Amino acid sequence: MKLFKNRGDIYIPKSNYKSSREALILHILLIIIVLFTIAFVILLSHKYSSVAEFFGKGEVTVSENNVVEENLPKIEGKTNFLIFETDDEKTTIHYALLIQADKSSKAYKVCALSPKMKIKDKSINDIYLDGGGASLQTKLTEYFGFEIDYFADFDNSSFVDFVSKLGSFILPVEKEINFSGGKDDDKYSLHIGDGEQNVDSRALSNLLRYYTEEKKNYALVNETALYALTSLFNEENYEDSEALFRLFVKSSVTNITVRNFENNKDSLYVFCKLNNEITVYSALCEYKSNVLTQNSVKDIKGYFNK
User: Fold this and answer.
1) What is the pTM of this model?
2) pLDDT (tens digit, 9 = 90+) per residue, 225-257?
3) Distance (Å, rounded) from C-alpha 229 to C-alpha 280?
């Protein structure tokens, strides 16, 4: 039985009998559909906790731009590092950095220190010459009042060799730099254009040294270090992390052990996986006669204290 002769035309039955019979059939069909829907919903609610479970039995993944969201390991806490580079003879610190990996908030925090910074009338360079990296780690821990968990002491050649294995990264440079400096066997030169520049390990070492020694611009040291951290700690390098760690231990004097490395593999994975999504913070140092101002000490403690 056709209800419509043509699209848009209403069919009018010839008798009341036909009209009532058609209405009855429609009502019966409607009742069947409603009863079936109610039964289906009841069955679904008893057997499955959600629509997602019904269709995928708990294996439905949310994707954006066809990228499957991955469940990352749960990490928390904060780890503080002291990283510094010296000349190849280990007599002069070129630059020194406090770096924190904040695993709870997924953040890097960086603070560049002047090698001439004094603790009780003694520069951190002299503290290093008297007792090495472990002594400097201890003195800075006492001075700031928060634990510096690990230190890594690189000479220039070893730092350049190690970072070269990590690769290069893009750094925005405000002004072109052409500079030659240093003394005797510790000379260096830096030639880098303005704009976005591809920075390799040699340029990174020289930039950090130039901003520290010549410009005394610790904000630029921090910025450069943060670009390096968020670029070089990536998924590709994570795949080679065990070989890179062996090279790191061979290239530096450090208190980081194989056990420390293994215990922090999950943290390393998360930071490498989210490298471009990590939040970054920069603690800026201000000095008077090579002594940190009280406000600077307060700010650094606020950033790094556990």
Assistant:
1) 0.77
2) 999 999 999 999 999 999 999 999 999 999 999
3) 10
